[in-house]
Amino acid sequence: MLPMDGDKLGADKTVDREKTCPLLLRVFLSNIRHHSPSDYARGQVPANELQVYTWLDATLRELTGLVKEVNREARRKGTVFDFAFVFPDRNGPMYRVREIGTTVSGQKGPDDFKTLRECRFTIGDYLDIAITPPRGGNLRY
């Protein structure tokens, strides 16, 4: 894997978004729980893909905002966004899921300003977001 300019920076540094090329982040949305690792097996991915060009200093709050821009139902106050990386298992042909944080629409939380870099994102990882509506709400993905 080739290093990107953003990879040379420490975890506490921000990326110069004017000089650094963004990366393609493949995001998969699901309702209430994350996709199964088997949904990513054998070259397959879930159908509900959102492609986002962003940088390693993108925060979970920023990514939440991007999802809300394209999905009206996810804009409701109290909607929970659970983030996880999906990546190949080094010991076999399967994929692994690692939860990295949670944001809540309309509320501040401890994970809001976690960045992809701080969460140890690696180019090629997928981002799986399980979206849970507030009580009485329905979402479909």
TrEMBL record:
Q: Which residues form a coiled coil?
A: none
A Pfam family assignment: SAP18
A molecular-function term among this protein's GO annotations: transcription corepressor activity
Q: Cite the entry's keywords alphabetically.
A: Repressor, Transcription, Transcription regulation
Q: Name one GO cellular component term.
A: nucleus
Q: Which domain of life is it from?
A: Eukaryota
What does the sequence similarity comment in the record state about its family?
Belongs to the SAP18 family.
The record, for PANTHER family, names:
HISTONE DEACETYLASE COMPLEX SUBUNIT SAP18, SAP18
Q: What is this protein called?
A: 18 kDa Sin3-associated polypeptide
